[in-house]
Amino acid sequence: MTLTVLMNAGPWLPVPPPGYGGIENVVATLVPELRRLGVRVVLASVGSSTLPCDERVGVFAEGQFGALQRPYNQVCGVAQAHLAGVVRQLHARDDIDLVHDHVEAVGLAMLTAMGPGAPPVLHTLHWDLGKHPELYGGLDGGARVRVNGVSAAQLARAPRALREHSVGHVHLATPLATEAHRRPPVVKGEHVLVLGRVNPGKGQDLAARLAHRVGFRLVLAGPVGPYHRPAELAAAGAEARQNPDVRFFHDEVAPYVDGDRVRWIGTVAGRDRDDLLATARATLFPLRWEEPGGTAVVESLALGTPVVALARGCLPELVEHGRTGLLTGDEAELGDLVLAADLLEPDECRREAAARFTPAVMARRYAALYERVRRSDAAVPALRAA
């Protein structure tokens, strides 16, 4: 392809992130494969990003994630400052064929407001589309601005205006899937893993109660608010409870964290994270929300670990019940399914990941959407002239 794409990853974390980072990990997975397809990528991120790309632009030298715990009136300008820098780039140059935006709400609003003279935009929706009803419900990007989901289930729940701007969905991918079918078997440990940011939607409190009731060992891995290590959270003052995720952890999860049956280990990254996933009996997703994308789900499958989950959001799209995982609509059944997961074959999980969730598969799908968005935008002047 002969195409230059401005990939807007936002101001919050570098790409790739040092540990947890949902959107930033998606971008880090996608960009190398796009470049292999011949796409020139201008990465809009922070200065500490290390992902190889053709050009990097941005406003902030370092990720601004830590600012998210501050009051709104202290943080509300961060994303806007980053997007203002992106808009300045788009005004100043004529070599950007398309903007692929990943910044929640602000990215879509500002890029839409640029009007018909700006490059076409594909805005990827990574989150709960029940939020921002005034923005999503009134979206009018014409033919220039299009959106895509990260699952069909996510788009099915979208407001009508978003669905009318949609060009489809692209499931998330993981580099772990590329060689998944060739990965040798790993000896499974005793632990069940919940991987992800600790918050009510992920249901770590439910998982912890199940571990004590049913009798399995549970590891909770992921940050609590801005705190990536137990020692960091322990040292935080009372003001840390202003963060809702910190309050949730202290009030609903910590009473079950005994260091034996249930452990919270904070953020894990790299080889440690992969080993923790690969040796788990199962990964548990006791979701209280309609999960849109499920990065941790495809990573689990790639490492040969079955998924046990409430059948919400994208989970039924990613997991085949009885082959690569066990799904239920009943919270009370989750504990029994965790014990039954030992009967599933890790090789089946790896084969599924290698067929469906590689970065190459995701990049080819996005390249096709880029062309679809550009054709749609190019057709507008002709239609208006007619």
From TrEMBL:
Q: Would the keyword Hydrolase be found if you checked this record's keyword annotation?
A: no
Q: Return the SUPFAM superfamilies for the record.
A: UDP-Glycosyltransferase/glycogen phosphorylase (SSF53756)
Output the Gene3D superfamilies linked to this UniProt entry.
Answer: Glycogen Phosphorylase B
- From what superkingdom does this record's organism come? Bacteria
The UniProt entry's coiled-coil ranges are: none
MF (Gene Ontology) = glycosyltransferase activity
List residues of the Glycosyltransferase subfamily 4-like N-terminal domain: 20-129
Sorted keywords for this record are: Glycosyltransferase, Transferase
Q: Where is the Glycosyl transferase family domain?
A: 188-350
From the Swiss-Prot or TrEMBL record, give the protein name: Glycosyltransferase family 4 protein
